[in-house]
Amino acid sequence: xxxxxxxxxxxxxxxxxxxxxxxxxxxxxxxxxxxxxxxxxxxxxxxxxxxxxxxxxxxxxxxxxxxxxxxxxxxxxxxxxxxxxxxxxxxxxxxxxxxxxxxxxxxxxxxxxxxxxxxxxxxxxxxxxxxxxxxxxxxxxxxxxxxxxxxxxxxxxxxxxxxxxxxxxxxxxxxxxxxxxxxxxxxxxxxxxxxxxxxxxxxxxxxxxxxxxxxxxxxxxxxxxxxxxxxxxxxxxxxxxxxxxxxxxxxxxxxxxxxxxxxxxxxxxxxxxxxxxxx
Amino acid sequence: xxxxxxxxxxxxxxxxxxxxxxxxxxxxxxxxxxxxxxxxxxxxxxxxxxxxxxxxxxxxxxxxxxxxxxxxxxxxxxxxxxxxxxxxxxxxxxxxxxxxxxxxxxxxxxxxxxxxxxxxxxxxxxxxxxxxxxxxxxxxxxxxxxxxxxxxxxxxxxxxxxxxxxxxxxxxxxxxxxxxxxxxxxxxxxxxxxxxxxxxxxxxxxxxxxxxxxxxxxxxxxxxxxxxxxxxxxxxxxxxxxxxxxxxxxxxxxxxxxxxxxxxxxxxxxxxxxxxxxxxxxxxxxxxxxxxxxxxxxxxxxxxxxxxxxxxxxxxxxxxxxxxxxxxxxxxxxxxxxxxxxxxxxxxxxxxxxxxxxxxxxxxxxxxxxxxxxxxxxxxxxxxxxxxxxxxxxxxxxxxxxxxxxxxxxxxxxxxxxxxxxxxxxxxxxxxxxxxxxxxxxxxxxxxxxxxxxxxxxxxxxxxxxxxxxxxxxxxxxxxxxxxxxxxxxxxxxxxxxxxxxxxxxxxxxxxxxxxxxxxxxxxxxxxxxxxxxxxxxxxxxxxxxxxxxxxxxxxxxxxxxxxxxxxxxxxx
Lengths: 279, 573
Description:
heterodimer; A: alpha/beta; 8 strands; disordered N terminus; B: alpha/beta; Pyruvate-ferredoxin Oxidoreductase, domain 3; Rossmann fold; 4 domains; eight-stranded mixed sheet; seven-stranded mixed sheet; 20% strand
């Protein structure tokens, strides 16, 4: 697939990379997610200055500085709000948001469901490693209930994990996909489709953490493609998500839904508003 | 009523929520405007949307007024529902007059114990005489006649006010108004406002509208916000107007989102603001810190209400000063400003936006419920041309350092779309390029830069409003200014010159300007509406005040009155 991308488009992914060396551990899945993002941007031949990549806090949220598009490394959980403000004010920009499972689904959970509901035209990449890495290995909302390796939850969380795709679907996202850092080309293709989709696109990128979840290095043997093509039928999509173990990849759901963008026009003046105060 | 010839009159109209006392009060302000008078209407209401207590507290005058008087000349009660909840906000005396409907029941003890004269009037029955009659319009007619307002001008104002609600409402309102206008009170008419009006153009607006206008004048074209009392009207005023100016207002899912959306829009090059009140400000502060660290200009207008926690949402208090000054974690230089009166809501907010843009700084503008929800009849505010440059923008030549260490601390900002300006804005401490850095030298250099850009700016004379002379100084801030101004004036008229320093710019502190303003002062009286004396402690922290200091501080909801400031000055002066 890499070969095809290069032939189809002379722009190289490295045009979208910065010179800053990532803080990630050796073997971290996030390197491949970064590669997939830059590949997708190259394939779409987007001008660097017309793209903004925003993030919150966490290992994955470091990603904007490793690219050479406009970036914003904000605060924990609020990347989608930051991005929604930017998109509302600058609708012509291509707006991407990236962050981890804790950032997006725990502290930023409210913004996630409302961003899905608002369906603004931007792309959200959840780099899901089922753990808080930057704070040294605590359970996240996608961690299995019986994972006992964290000192913070020595008995495990005892809580059923969120299924990000199900959450996104219920909240009204119009594009939902699940990819894998072990298949960066497949992830890049998914990101191209997500960016091209008009509306809020959610791409859950399974991206193992070799340091705190070494057992997930086996994901490469477990993760497989969905048997089905994507659907625009929410009930069918819900059934497929629920029937799956969370390890099938592909575009799950895509549907044209009203894209929200604030209504604006140039029809008034401040002088006119001031007249309203005159008595 | 002491006299029928006074140039200043205070009227309270009370009724249950939804009875239309505020509509009647607003129209009374309009009628006063027709005669060239000034006025202020404060709203006193409870948390209920309908059926709770409600009062329009009006002061009409031939001179500009910026605060409530010490007491009320007239209380007109449509009913007595829950009146005891705000009786303390309507001080009456034996000179006051109460007009009340006997059908509404006995006058509550909290009201009658004032010894005010009482004139019973069957308001409800008068309203019932016409189809769809309303007691508030009867009251309006009664007051218009009693105040000597022009009959046809009053009719025209009612017609205009209800035109949008259909012909039936207009004709019903007018019929009730006539019933009131035809009613002659036993008490002699108050001709107080029949003379002395001026023809200068007037505005009638609320502080919330004033802040909204100031934001637009300053260049704000994006707002994101979450509804909260008592700031919502500012947002409701802004929403359609931002839209008409090519901008927009986004209703966010919460205040955490609001502030971050505003930062996102401003990062995109569009001047942006949000408005909130105490609880919302508390939620916004982490984001506000991001604006400071990433040097993204934003303005938060915080309309103070009684706190802490949910506190008293519908009542005023000057108690978000501490959180505005000190609420941030880390060393986080920012701007804190306070509007002094309704007209100043316009100026102060415009100033805040322009400073924020020029200095790439985060600003908090403090207003309060008393300012924000009061309607004022004022001289049309002059529009000053502020000599503040716009946001410094990067150009696309040469390698770009977003956080370059410049002499004035302001680094040109690249806006997405600019070729070769790509950088990553960061709340992590960073090097000049924006690259995250925990190096001591970078931290120190960036801290210096962020402080330098605020402290080196020349804020000129606008840091405070100063007036008067003598060796006693009143120092106050924000909305307590109205009462302090009037106290100073009353004292001056009685031959006691005092100085008034009313602070508009709280951060950064104007230490030299304050020293100059206090030259020769031997006694300071600090005036604020706070139980814990937040403003006094702020003054102690930042300024060299080595003279005797007294504090006149009281929590909300009762506003500080001119009379009590006068008394305090005379008591020990």
